[in-house]
Design a protein that fits this description.
By secondary structure, the chain is an alpha/beta fold. The protein contains twelve helices and ten strands. The radius of gyration is 20 Å and the shape is globular.
Length: about 280
């Protein structure tokens, strides 16, 4: 509410834990409040969260995502929708008002080839997670192939990636901040465990999964190697932050999404340190 230029986005809203019309109403509201500066990030979330935490059956995640996007776009553009799909059926839903912002950009989260292809077919952008610098070229190619297959120009699809960032006085201190988060994501989410294995950290991913299954969080954290963190996050001193972000841009990432990680009473100051270090250098 205090800004006029910054873009606002969801990163990432699940297509399973809210109904598609509810998602569309929320998107319309935030687009209106932000004056049209809203990016709508959607994803399928994970079975290990959706079913036990929300009591919702999880199935056909890509189909559910595709159908949710179609419904949300129809409601934002027309104000009403009827829809019969494989995972969603809506007899009739009417917003009872005409949205002022009818072309809200939709970005889809994706990790593997099928999700990337879906983004290439229907999305305005893609949201990657903890991607490596080497990942971007492959994602570019997969997006382009999928987009051209349906007659879209791949140049219009923005590539973003969530980048965990830790800044400390020493490399060891920065690594220590991120290690618990990497252990959690790799241990708890099967999809991210597979992603880390495909990034080249096969032994680490297997050890973390085994420790997590036994409930041994400390062992899971010990299994996270320094190389695993440095390849999928930004672990630097303040002076190195901008250079590392620029490396991601040079690799083909249009928008590196700064994701500070900190806990405890000093978290706010750590967030501010990361944001200031990553911000563009003042012009002279």
């Amino acid at each position: 509410m205090r800004t006029s230029r910054i873009r606002l986005g969801t990163s990432i809203s699940s297509v399973f834990v809210r109904t598609a019309p509810t998602i569309a109403m929320a998107a319309s509201s935030v687009a209106d409040l932000s004056g049209g500066r809203f990016i709508f990030g959607l994803g399928s979330s994970h079975k290990v969260q959706v079913e036990p935490e929300h009591g919702v059956a999880y199935g056909k995640p890509l189909t559910r995502t595709r159908e949710t996007v179609a419904i949300v776009r129809a409601l934002l553009r027309e104000g009403h929708v009827r829809f019969v799909g494989e995972t969603i059926r809506i007899e009739n839903f009417d917003l009872w008002y005409t949205p002022r912002h009818r072309d809200v950009p939709v970005y889809l989260s994706a990790v593997f080839a099928k999700g990337i292809a879906l983004a290439g077919e229907i999305a305005d952008g893609i949201i990657l997670l903890s991607s490596r610098l080497e990942t971007t070229a492959r994602v570019h190619a997969q997006l382009a192939e999928a987009a051209r297959r349906v007659g879209r120009d791949p140049a219009g699809i923005e590539i973003t990636t969530l980048l965990p960032i830790s800044i400390g006085d020493t490399r060891a201190a920065s690594l220590a901040v991120l290690r618990p988060g990497v252990a959690f994501y790799t241990g708890f989410f099967p999809r991210y465990n597979r992603m880390m294995a495909e990034h080249g950290f096969v032994a680490e991913a297997a050890a973390i999964a085994a420790a997590w299954a036994k409930g041994d969080r400390e062992a899971a954290e010990r299994a996270v190697s320094d190389g695993m963190i440095e390849a999928t996050a930004i672990v630097v001193t303040p002076e190195q932050c901008r250079a590392r972000l620029e490396a991601y841009r040079q690799s083909g990432v249009d928008v590196p999404i700064i994701t500070p990680f900190a806990r405890g009473p000093g978290a706010k100051s750590q967030f501010e340190l990361v944001l200031r270090a990553c911000a563009p250098a003042p012009s002279r």
